[in-house]
Amino acid sequence: MSYANYMATYTEKIARTDAALAAALRVSVARLTRRLRSERDPRNELSVGQLSVLGALYRSGECSIGELAAHERVQPPSMTRTVSCLEEDGYVVRRPHESDRRQVLIALAAKGQQTLLADRKRRDAWLAQRLRELSPDERHVLREAAPIIERLATA
After folding, report:
1. What span, in angstroms and rounded, lies between the C-alpha atoms of 116 and 45?
2. Which of 2, 51, 83, 146 is 20 to 30 A off residue 57, Cα-Cα?
3. What is the residue range of 85's domain?
4. Half-sphere exposure (CA, 13 Å, Cβ side) for 104?
5. Contact between 36 and 126 (Cβ < 8 Å)
6. Same domain, 92 and 127
7. CA–CA separation, 63 and 27 (whole Å)
8. pLDDT by residue (tens digit) across 23-49?
């Protein structure tokens, strides 16, 4: 039996209940996440958390510390420390909020964007190669599943 057939049979058996599907997805997503982390750009010195902050800024534009903390599900003091480190190394910049001078806004600096995009490019290339090894039907299933997985991730 091929690995693909084994996995199809395994998934069919294990995912008959919502609880079993949850367990199968949790394990699979965790393994894929670890594998993608191992494909990071070797020149990238940032932690996964720091890279995640850069990604949030890339997607959302400039944000306050509180907004970033809420997005990353950490406390504002933790985000303040992360942002301070990123700022010291030139990955982000701070500027005063226009209407509320007590707040600062954090924006992605050119170095932060270059680092983030280089890291993503390397991991995307690895994943694209793995996807090319799948059948057209398997890629179709993943195209259908990707938005659903994103909804789960942001719930």
Report:
1. 11
2. 146
3. 48-110
4. 13
5. yes
6. no
7. 33
8. 889 999 999 999 998 898 888 889 989
